[in-house]
Amino acid sequence: MDYSLTIKLTFSLFSFDSKNMRWFNTKRILISLILVPIFTICLIINRFFLLLDHVFFPHFIRQSIRNPVFIVAAPRSGTTYLFHTLAADKNNFTTFKLWEIILAPSIIQKYFFLGLLKCDRTLGSPLKKVILSVENRLLDNFKHIHKIGLSLPEEDEAILLWNMSTFYLNFFFPDTNYFNNYFAFDDKMTTVNKERIMRYYRKCVQRHNFVFNRRGTKKFLSKNPAMMSKVKSLHQFFGDATIVTITRCPSKTIPSTIALNNSIYAFFTSKAPGHDINERTKNILINWYKMAHENITAVYSNQTINLSFNGLIKNEQSVINNLCGKLGIEDRLFSTNQDPEKLNHISRNKYTALGDSELQFILEKMPFISEYCTEEKMS
């Protein structure tokens, strides 16, 4: 656990600077009064049960993780579509779902909630109906920009919340520089902290496999844009992984991500992000593109499946055949006739694409992506 970060955040809930997003506005005060106690209780409970796993299931640390698959690409690049499509192949893949990440990171908790749901089904699922009703009310405003639900696969960066070691905390603590090393993980994080965080993450995956994939017949699947900054660290702990990349022109991924981030910030404060916040997001994404390109080429060159965004969302046969052939799965998952509402979620996230001059300036910093921008213009 990052105790140094935890201490800093404890004393940074609010800012006395009226221009700061953590200023004492009504929304932030109310949200803090609700979320801080809930998060603190969840943190204590989850960490307690994570420790108990070492007492009741100590052999979980020997659980194998064979040939995992990591979708490593910029946000707003079709990663959610690909993630949910692959996760639908339950014979070949297993992955974290939101309920497991938030409520049951430990083995003990997983068994408890699985048992509870089994009992609920025998009674006609009254608990499930209540949960779905509450979920729809709480998450309805967010579903239009990101496909989300307790029973759905989700980005596993959130499981690092219980180790206080994720930049996700930045959304609740904007206008700070506490997360700079997390945004450039491989380059700026200390070796000791990198290994501590990645060991914790690996153990979380082992716990998942221990419950849902004990025999190791399925591949663990992860979709996590944050891994763009962790490729070298990922290789250290998951050397046999397959990396799936999706490349989309930054003229759309950057403004779309900024719009998404601003929507998340708006949950926690009524102070709108300033120009500096949006510029920081843009620079982080540019750095992620560069880090991922350089490090994937260096350490995962023979274990990478490169996809173009256009080819993926249009289900171009050559792209789908390449992906499915290398993963050893059937291409029927990508059929447009297969439950389009489930597999082809379209975000209603509103943004304006970057202008040609700004895009050209960015492409000068990462020329390796230029061909994809040309491809999208021609499509």
From TrEMBL:
Sequence intervals crossing the membrane: 29-52
Database matches in InterPro entries: P-loop_NTPase (IPR027417), Stf3_sulfotransferase (IPR052736)
Native organism: Lacibacter sediminis
PANTHER family associated with the record: OMEGA-HYDROXY-BETA-DIHYDROMENAQUINONE-9 SULFOTRANSFERASE STF3 (PTHR36451:SF1), PAPS-DEPENDENT SULFOTRANSFERASE STF3 (PTHR36451)
Signal peptide (residue range): none
Record's keyword terms, sorted: Membrane, Transmembrane, Transmembrane helix
Protein's UniProt name: Sulfotransferase
